[in-house]
Amino acid sequence: MTVSLIFKIAAVGVLVSVICQVLKHSGREEHAFLTSLAGLLLVLYWLVPYIYDLFESIKALFSL
């Protein structure tokens, strides 16, 4: 995992939280929920390859 990925995740978190606060104060709760869901899915899309590599490494470690 690179440092740039951590910065990307942090940037998405800050951006999503600001957008959600603006949407909630304007009375658009549904849009705020969808924005947070989209941010979560984006971060998971970035993390899935690393999780897959982790499970493959663990499987290789125990399969002797």
Can you tell me about this structure?
This is Stage III sporulation protein AC. The chain crosses the membrane at residues 6-23, 32-52. Keywords: Membrane, Transmembrane, Transmembrane helix. With 64 residues, this protein is mostly helical. The protein has one domain. Helices cover 89% and strands 0% of the residues. The chain has helices at 3-25, 29-62. Helix 1 runs antiparallel to helix 2 (29-62).
Secondary-structure topology with pairs:
Layout: H1 3-25, H2 29-62
Helix pairs in contact: 1-2
Estimate percent helicity: over 70%
> Could you say how many structural domains there are in total?
1
Distance between the termini: 26 Å
Strand residue percentage: under 5%
Instruction: Please summarize the sheet with the most strands.
Output: none
Apparent shape: elongated
What is the overall number of helices?
2
Q: Briefly note the structural class of the backbone.
A: mainly alpha
- Give the low-confidence spans: none
Order of helices and strands: HH
Concise summary:
The protein has helices at residues 3-25, 29-62. It has 64 residues and is mostly helical.
Considering the chains and any ligands shown, give keywords for the structure.
about 60 residues; mainly alpha; about 90% helix; membrane
